[in-house]
Amino acid sequence: MSRDFDYLLKKHGKDGSRAVFEDACTKAFSAKYKDAFPIKCDPGDEGIDIFIGDFKEPIEVYQCKCFFFEIGESQKKQINASFKKAIESTTYEMKKWCLCVPKSLTIDEMNWWSDWKKKKVNNHSIEIELLDSTKLLKLIKETDIHLEIFDEEELQKLNEILLLLEKKEERLKEIFSVPDEIDYDERIFTLKLKSANINENLDVYNKQFFNAEILTKEVQSKGIEEELKELKSLKSLIQDMWLTQYLMYEDEIDGNKLLGMVNMRIEDKNNDILKTVLSVGTIEKKGILHQLADECTVGWVKKYKERLKDFLEKNDKTRGEI
């Protein structure tokens, strides 16, 4: 199963996904058109995110709006403001304006767009186009950018392992190492660990996460209702174990002790309440913890979401100073 733009929102959050979405569009257009370029906002971008052409002639302007959920009144105002800035620019002449959004429009949104587009085309005699999620995903996949943007190298590796398992009569309790081509450094679960000053044994936690991903992918691909329910129940039990320990935890800086306590509970209850019909060991169960962290439903210090936000802002500032 291939990923779409919702994956960016889940992985990077609302603010982070905006930059990743714009970067994905830039890379896709640059791969398809040799004369496609992004514009740095310094101090303004003159209404351009990406353009195709040469400023000595009329250009095509592409505006990337990271609207995941709706095109309401606020979003419409932003679209109008961007178009107005571009059409009134004295720096360049525009022959085409294109709106890029990571969603499919509803009937009401499409009706508004059609009316808006017709009015602007009639008033300014230029070409206007909408690139929604379907068209953008097609372009991104045509240029192979999706492998990088949606971390699909990881999916490909998981699928290879699943094919290997399908050739075996039984699911062996085999523990897989994380392939060299998979990098978890920017995954939310890793950033959660680092923000809680858990900096040792990250390779172990990566391995746990990777094997939990294999388990999840295997169960989902088989589609057996009993196993799907069992996995959901197991995930819920592990989250409850974390919550019990979390409610008693007071440290807002260091999460090593909390992680250790939850892992110990998983080991203690492995053959008790965590016993399951699935062929799964403690490594996969501990990996489910990091899957939950990747979904931002568990953390390792009090106020872990605020701690993660501060950690990311500090890192972004540090990178900017390098």
TrEMBL record:
Domain ABC-three component systems C-terminal intervals: 182-296
InterPro entries: ABC-3C_CTD8
Name assigned to this protein: ABC-three component systems C-terminal domain-containing protein
Organism lineage: Bacteria, Pseudomonadati, Bacteroidota, Flavobacteriia, Flavobacteriales
